[in-house]
Automatic annotation (TrEMBL):
Gene3D superfamilies: Glucose Permease (Domain IIA) (2.70.70.10). The lineage of its organism: Bacteria, Bacillati, Bacillota, Bacilli, Bacillales. Keywords: Coiled coil, Membrane, Transmembrane, Transmembrane helix. GO terms for molecular function: metalloendopeptidase activity. This is M23ase beta-sheet core domain-containing protein. It comes from the Bacteria. The chain crosses the membrane at residues 26-50. Residues 85-129 form a coiled coil. InterPro entries: Cell_wall_metabolism_enzyme, Dup_hybrid_motif, M23ase_b-sheet_dom. It comes from Cohnella fermenti.
Length: 338
């Protein structure tokens, strides 16, 4: 076999010379033997490549489907975000209009505060906080076709809204401080009002003897009457005309059982000729508190309450503090001496 040879003749074309390739016969036999091996190798290689291709094809289909699903979710998320942005923009516009409405109400509150302070006799405070100036379009007539706002237009609107809302912060802070100050002023005015003897000390509104010059019921001489007399029945309730502290509660030969209340700010009220003393020295009484009962004790000609108001040590007309609904009578049989 080693001495035998196999010759291959190659004829390219009719005009070319013939080419011969001589190969030992054993090499040809080995080549023929390797052909099945090569075919098997090629077959296995094709199977491996096909398997790899099939696997990759399935993976490619899976990835493509996953990518489509992801794209769909992204589109839904984007649509939701656009809806949310539109909703937030709408809410922002509504909040801005509400802020403008609040500013309008705050301006009305400023005017009301000035009126309240004027009624209380308290000076108005200066208001130096910035005022928001944006107006609500819904408060006026509106029409025409609406189109979506551009990013630049909405940004400009957003800047205006931001300035409007920012202006409300110091405004509200100023309002809160002024309300606190006004509350303190109102409390002070209320305290003064509570300490002012401006209610009737008796149920009766009948004045039997007024404040001023009169004839003394005992001497029949002209004398100054330092208070006013309220007629009534023994045991009728007598009330504190204002908040204060009882500084006197005892019996006197001329004034009978009597009570004195200090209301502060130089104001004192006196209640004389009582039949019963209820409030005692040191008691803190409120306006309208029952302090005693009407009587006829001391230097008196009949049941009545002698009521005085003293301001800075000087007797003043109690009627200047009382509501104007009295029924004045001239009943000199129920008068007291000065």
């Amino acid at each position: 076999m080693s001495r035998k040879k196999v010759t291959f003749v190659v004829i390219p074309d009719a005009s070319s010379s013939v080419r011969r390739l001589t190969v030992p016969s054993y090499l040809f036999a080995v080549g023929l033997a390797l052909v099945p091996v090569l075919l098997l190798f090629l077959t296995l290689a094709c199977l491996v490549l096909y398997r790899h291709y099939d696997t990759n094809a399935d993976q490619l289909v899976y990835l493509e489907r996953k990518m489509n699903d992801t794209a769909s979710r992204y589109e839904e998320i984007l649509a939701d975000k656009n809806t949310s942005i539109d909703y937030l923009q709408t809410k922002l516009v509504e909040l801005t209009e509400q802020a403008s409405a609040i500013q309008s109400q705050l301006n009305e509150m400023d005017e009301l505060e000035d009126q309240v302070r004027e009624l209380m006799g308290v000076s108005s405070e200066a208001k130096d906080e910035p005022q928001a100036s944006a107006l609500s379009a819904s408060a006026f007539g509106a029409g025409g076709e609406d189109i979506p706002a551009s990013d630049e237009e909405f940004q400009a609107y957003l800047d205006t809204a931001s300035r409007t809302l920012s202006a409300l912060v110091p405004t509200l802070g100023g309002i809160e401080k002024r309300l606190q100050d006004m509350k303190a002023d109102v409390s002070e005015v209320q305290s003064k009002l509570d300490a002012t003897p401006n209610i009737w000390p008796t149920v009766s509104r009948t004045i039997s003897s007024p404040y001023g010059i009169r004839l003394d019921p005992f001497t029949r001489k002209a004398r100054f009457h330092a208070g006013i007399d309220f007629s009534g029945n023994v045991g009728d309730p007598v009330y504190a005309a204002a908040d204060g502290v009882v500084t006197w509660s005892q019996k006197d030969s001329a004034e009978g059982k009597n009570i004195k209340i200090d209301h502060g700010d130089g104001i004192v009220t006196r209640y004389m000729h009582l039949s019963k003393l209820i409030a005692q020295v040191g008691d803190r009484v409120e306006k309208g508190t029952l302090i005693g009962e009407l009587g006829n004790t001391g230097r008196s000609t009949g049941p009545h309450l002698h009521y005085e108001v003293v301001k800075d040590g000087v007797q003043v007309n109690p009627l200047s503090y009382l509501p104007a609904d009295s029924e004045s009578e001239s009943n000199e049989e129920s008068e007291e001496s000065p």
